[in-house]
Amino acid sequence: MKLAVNIDHVATLREARGEIEPDPVIAAGICELAGAEGIVCHLREDRRHINDRDVRLLREVVKTKLDLEMAATDEMVKIACEILPDLVTLVPENRKELTTEGGLNISAMKLRLTDAIDELKSKEILVSLFIDPEPEILDLALEVGADIIEFHTGKYANSIDEKSQLNELTKIGTVSRMAAEMGLIVTAGHGLNYFNIQPFLNIPEIREVSIGHAIISRAVFTGLQRAVEDMTKIISKF
Ligand code: PXP
């Protein structure tokens, strides 16, 4: 399993004062030095953390894999086609949300997704869809042309007791196996941290996890390099 680090919240801290630091571009280099195999950033319509300048510079400095998270809007598809990240992860976006709240509703936006994916693929950008771990969504993901699916692990991470957490884990495991059998590459993310990642690692179909908040939060106390190394140590045990 690989670790991709989401650096949005380095930019959140910068934007808290509207200053020039901390710089997510420098964070990306430190994450890579510490063992991250991908850098993720979410360019939101309201530019509340990552901005256009960050994405441009990240494209220049990231040496592993740049994953641009974005909504499937014309504006964002145009930016991606200019910047050419290695991967685009399409996510639902709601202006008022604090963070991405759920997976894509593919059936409600089939045409838009198909068009966006076609355009991105014409530039040889891989496309991942952020979806809930529900079996019926897999056919739709294939139909619109996804290469990769990222399962939303928020429900797992936010489970209020062990039983519901185990249920979520079992569901993610089952749907991951189904997705891999269908030829989709499976990744996962949202709400994963140094503790709840452990049982999750027993799902071999999950090739990569995307983790942001927990790593950036730990970095405040330990430094970013150590925070990334701590996570790669856990992940590499499996
Ligand atoms: N994957 C996706 C698609 C996301 O939107 C986010 C949150 O920005 C993450 C992973 C990372 O979530 P967290 O910050 O909770 O680790």
Question: Care to describe what's here?
Answer:
- The protein is α/β, with parallel strands linked by helices.
- It is built from 11 helices and 8 strands.
- The chain has helices spanning 8-17, 24-33, 52-61, 74-83, 110-122, 135-144, 154-157, 162-181, 197-200, 213-222, 224-236; strands at residues 2-6, 38-42, 66-70, 87-90, 126-131, 148-152, 185-189, 206-211.
- Strands 1-2-3-4-5-6-7-8 form an 8-stranded parallel β-barrel, surrounded by 7 helices.
- Helix 2 (24-33) runs parallel beside helix 3 (52-61) and helix 10 packs across helix 11.
- The chain is globular and about 45 Å long.
- The model has no long low-confidence stretch (mean pLDDT 96).
Which features does this protein show?
238 residues, alpha/beta, TIM Barrel, 11 helices, globular
Write the layout of secondary structure elements.
Blueprint: E1 2-6, H1 8-17, H2 24-33, E2 38-42, H3 52-61, E3 66-70, H4 74-83, E4 87-90, H5 110-122, E5 126-131, H6 135-144, E6 148-152, H7 154-157, H8 162-181, E7 185-189, H9 197-200, E8 206-211, H10 213-222, H11 224-236
Parallel strand pairs: 1-2, 1-8, 2-3, 3-4, 4-5, 5-6, 6-7, 7-8
Helix pairs in contact: 2-3, 10-11
Bound molecules: pyridoxine-5'-phosphate.
The site of pyridoxine-5'-phosphate (PXP) has 19 residues, from strand 8 and helix 10.
